[in-house]
Amino acid sequence: MSMAFDRAPMAFNNASLPFANIPATLDTVVRIRPVLRPSRVFLGIDIQALLYTLGALDVAQMEFSLASHVVMLTPDGISGGCEWNSCDTEGRLSVVAPNTVLFCPANEYLFFRKRKSQAQCRILLIAIRPTIMSRFDGNKDLTDVQFSQQIGIDDKTICQTLVSIQQELESPGVNSRFYIDALLMLLLNRLVRCASNLSVLPARSKYAKGGLASWRLRKALDLLESDSKNLPSLSEIAQTLNLHPTSFCRAFKQSTGLSPHRYLLVHRINRAKDMLRDGDVTLTQIAFDCGFASSSHFSAVFSRIVGVPPRTYRQSMSI
Question: Which one in 67, 236, 241, 302 has a CA-CA gap of 20 to 30 Å to 216?
Answer without folding.
Answer: 302
